[in-house]
TrEMBL record:
Domain ABC transmembrane type-1 residues, every copy: 51-343
Name the record gives this protein: ABC transporter
Molecular function as annotated in GO: ABC-type oligopeptide transporter activity; ATP binding; ATP hydrolysis activity
Compartments where located: Cell membrane
CDD domains tied to this protein: ABC_6TM_Tm288_like (cd18547)
GO cellular component term, pick one: plasma membrane
Residues covered by the ABC transporter domain: 376-610
Keyword Cell membrane applies: yes
InterPro entries (UniProt xref): AAA+_ATPase, ABC1_TM_dom, ABC1_TM_sf, ABC_transporter-like_ATP-bd, ABC_transporter-like_CS, P-loop_NTPase, Type_1_exporter
Topological type in the membrane: Multi-pass membrane protein
C-alpha cells in the first residue's frame, strides 16, 4: 500500500485581526537549524540579487508604512479647514492637501515598484537554486547502489523528487520577502504608533495576549483532528490505488460491493475528521474578529479623549486605526510563514537524506579488460541481503568461455541473486566473482555492465518509440542495426504490422502491446548491445509456445560463441545447454547435461517430471 501522502494542514484564509492562524500544526523538521543552513548554501551563488531583494523589500515596505500617516495629515487639514469655514475664519487649504495627495501617490507608486521587482528576482533566484539542487539529486540517484532502491519504496523516492521539491520552491520563493516585509512592517508600524500616541499603543498591545491565548487553545484542539485527517486520507489514497490498479481482480471475483463498502467506511471517517478540524479552526475567525473589534473600540474611545484634550489631531485617530490593523498582519504573517518554512525545511531534510545516502564505492585501483574471452568463476561465494540470513552459501561455479550454463531450481533457490551478484548490484559477503580471472570488484561498474547483456523476466520499456526502446541497447545504433536486431528477436514482422511501424509510441507501462511483445523488444535490445556475456533470466516466460520456439532459435544463433548464463523454469528451453546447474537453498546440488541429470533422478528429474509427466503419459 502506498504510504500516506504528506500534506499541509488546511488553514482558513482570514483577514485583519491580531494573531490569527497562530499555532496551526505543520510538519516539523528533525533538525531545523542544520537543514536550513545547508539549504541556504544553495542561495549563496546568488547573493547579490538577494541583497537587492532585501534592500528593495525594505524600501517598498517603508514607503507603504508612511501612507497612513500622510492620509491622517490630509484628514486633519480637511477637518481644520471645515472648522475655519464654519467659524468664518478661513477656507480649506486645497493646495496643501493636493501637495500631500501627490506625495501619497508617489509613495504608493514607489512601494508598488519596490514590491514587484523583489518578487520577480526572488522567483528567479529560488527556482534557479532549486534547479541546482534538483540536478544534484538526479546525479546522486545514478550513483546509488541497487540495494538503496530495493530498500526504499519507489513512490517515496518519487515523492521526494517531485512533491518535496515543489514544496521547497513554492515556499522559499515567497518566504524571504514576506519575512522581511513582516519584520519591517511590525517595527515601522510600532514606531509610527508610538509617535502618534504611546497611550493608544499600550491599549492595542493589551489585546495581543488575548489573541495568543485563544489561538493556542483552539489550535491544540484542532491539531489531533488534523493528524487524524492525514492518517485517514492516506488510508483512503491507498484503498483507491489498490482498487484501481487491481480493478480486474476486483471484477473477476465480483468484489465491487465490498470495495464500495470499504470506501464508504473510510470516506465517512475522513468526513468526520475533516469537518471537526475545520470547524474548530474556523472558530478562530469570529474570536479574533471580536478581539480586533474590541481593540478598535478601545482605540476610538481613548483617541476621542485625547482629541478633546488636544493631545492628538483628529487625523491621527484615522492613521492610528489603520496602523493598528497593520500591526496584526505581520504577527499573523510570521506565524503562517513559520508553518510554511517548517514544512519546506522538512521537505529539504527528505531530499538531503537521499543526497547523504552511501554511494557505490569507488574502485581505488581499477582493472580494465582489453580482450574478453568471457570465462566466469564463482569462488566460494556467500551472500545475504540481510545479516544472518544467507541466500547464497559457499557456492563455487566455473563457466568456460563460450559455454551456455543454465541455472534451475525452485523459487527462492537463489538463481536471480546469483545474477545480481554477477552484475555487481551487490557485493558478495564472502568469496569472489571473476571474469577472465579479474575480480569484478576491481572492474569499473560501467565497463562491467558493457560486458553483460541482460534480458529479465520483468520487462522494462520507457515511454517512447519502439525504435528508441530497441536502440537503448547501443548508443548511436543505425537503422539497419535496429532492424537486424528486431529480425533476430522475431519481432520485426510484428512491428511492421503496426500503423506507425518502428515509430509507434509505447504508452505508459507499454500497455498498448502484449507482455510477450514487450519481452521480444527487450530481447532485441540485448541483441543490439552485442555483449560478450549474456544473462537470460526467464527471457521466454511471457511468450507463447510457438514464439518461444522462434526465440529459442534466435537465441541459439545469438549465444553461439558467447558465454551465456540462462535462468529458466521452463526446462524445454535449456535442454541443449552445455551444463545445467541445479540450485537449492543457495547451494549447488546437481550439475550436468540434461540427459545426465535425468538419469540421476534427483531434483532436476523431479522438476522435469512435474512439468512434462502428463505430456509423456499422453504420448504413451
Amino acid at each position: 500500500m502506498k504510504p500516506p501522502e504528506r500534506q499541509r494542514p488546511l488553514m482558513p484564509m482570514m483577514g485583519g485581526g491580531w494573531g490569527r492562524n497562530l499555532g496551526i500544526p505543520a510538519e516539523k523538521p528533525k533538525n531545523f537549524q542544520a537543514t536550513a543552513g545547508r539549504l541556504m548554501r544553495y542561495f549563496l551563488p546568488y547573493k547579490w540579487p538577494l541583497v537587492f531583494v532585501v534592500i528593495s523589500t525594505i524600501l517598498g515596505t517603508g514607503f507603504s508604512i508612511l501612507g497612513p500617516r500622510i492620509m491622517g495629515n490630509i484628514t486633519t487639514k480637511l477637518y481644520q479647514g471645515l472648522v475655519r469655514q464654519t467659524h468664518g475664519t478661513g477656507n480649506i487649504d486645497f493646495a496643501a492637501i493636493s501637495h500631500l495627495l501627490a506625495i501619497l501617490s508617489g509613495l504608493y507608486i514607489l512601494s508598488a515598484a519596490f514590491t514587484y521587482f523583489p518578487r520577480y528576482i526572488m522567483a528567479h533566484v529560488a527556482q534557479k537554486s532549486i534547479y541546482d539542487l534538483r540536478q544534484q539529486l538526479d546525479h546522486k540517484l545514478t550513483l546509488l547502489p541497487v540495494s538503496y532502491f530495493d530498500t526504499h519504496a519507489h513512490g517515496d523516492i518519487l515523492s521526494r523528487f517531485v512533491n518535496d521539491f515543489d514544496n521547497i520552491s513554492s515556499s522559499l520563493q515567497q518566504s524571504l520577502t514576506q519575512i522581511i516585509q513582516a519584520i519591517v512592517t511590525f517595527v515601522g508600524v510600532l514606531v509610527m504608533m508610538v509617535l502618534i500616541s504611546p497611550i493608544m499603543t499600550i491599549t492595542v498591545a493589551l489585546t495581543l495576549p488575548l489573541s495568543f491565548y485563544f489561538t493556542r487553545v483552539i489550535a491544540r484542539r484542532s491539531q489531533k483532528f488534523f493528524l487524524w485527517r492525514q492518517t485517514v486520507l492516506g488510508e483512503l489514497n491507498g484503498h483507491i490505488e489498490e482498487m484501481y490498479t487491481g480493478h480486474q481482480v476486483v471484477k473477476a471475483f465480483s468484489r465491487e460491493p465490498e470495495a464500495i463498502s470499504r470506501f464508504t467506511e473510510i470516506n465517512q471517517r475522513l468526513y468526520e475528521a475533516t469537518w471537526k478540524a475545520q470547524f474548530i479552526t474556523s472558530v478562530i475567525m469570529p474570536v479574533m474578529n471580536f478581539i480586533s473589534n474590541l481593540g478598535y473600540v478601545f482605540v476610538s474611545v481613548v483617541g476621542g479623549i485625547l482629541v478633546t484634550l488636544r493631545r492628538i489631531q483628529i487625523g491621527d485617530i484615522l492613521a492610528f486605526i489603520q496602523y493598528s490593523r497593520q500591526f496584526s498582519q505581520p504577527i499573523t504573517q510570521l506565524s503562517s510563514i513559520s508553518n510554511v518554512i517548517q514544512s519546506a525545511i522538512a521537505s529539504a531534510e527528505r531530499v538531503f537524506e537521499v543526497l547523504d545516502a552511501p554511494e557505490e564505492t569507488e574502485i581505488a585501483e581499477p582493472r580494465h579488460l582489453a580482450h574478453i574471452t568471457g570465462s566466469i568463476q564463482f569462488d566460494h561465494v556467500s551472500f545475504g541481503y540481510t545479516p544472518n540470513h544467507p541466500v547464497i552459501n559457499d557456492l563455487t561455479l566455473d563457466i568456460e568461455s563460450g559455454h551456455t550454463v543454465a541455472i534451475v531450481g525452485e523459487t527462492g533457490a537463489g538463481k536471480t541473486t546469483l545474477v545480481n551478484l554477477l552484475m555487481h548490484f551487490y557485493d558478495v559477503t564472502e568469496g569472489s566473482i571473476r571474469i577472465d580471472g579479474v575480480d569484478i570488484r576491481f572492474i569499473p561498474r560501467r565497463e562491467l555492465h558493457h560486458l553483460l547483456g541482460m534480458v529479465l523476466q520483468d520487462t522494462w520499456l520507457f515511454h517512447g518509440t519502439i525504435r528508441d526502446n530497441i536502440a537503448y541497447g547501443k548508443t548511436g545504433a543505425s537503422e539497419e542495426e535496429i532492424i537486424a536486431a528486431a529480425k533476430t528477436a522475431q519481432v520485426h514482422h510484428f512491428v511492421q504490422t503496426l500503423p506507425e511501424g518502428y515509430d509507434t509510441v509505447l504508452n505508459e507501462e507499454a500497455a498498448n502491446i502484449s507482455a510477450g511483445q514487450k519481452q521480444l523488444l527487450t530481447i532485441a535490445r540485448a541483441i543490439l548491445a552485442d555483449p560478450p556475456i549474456l544473462i537470460l533470466d526467464e527471457a521466454t516466460s511471457s511468450v507463447d509456445t510457438r514464439t518461444e520456439v522462434l526465440i529459442q532459435r534466435a537465441m541459439d544463433h545469438l549465444m553461439r560463441g558467447r558465454t551465456s548464463l540462462v535462468i529458466a523454469h521452463r526446462l524445454s528451453t535449456i535442454q541443449d545447454a552445455n551444463r545445467i546447474v541445479v540450485m537449492d537453498q543457495g547451494r549447488i546440488h546437481e550439475e550436468g547435461t540434461h540427459t545426465e541429470l535425468l538419469k540421476r533422478q534427483g531434483i532436476y528429474w523431479r522438476l522435469y517430471r512435474s512439468q512434462y509427466a502428463h505430456q509423456e503419459e499422453v504420448s504413451l
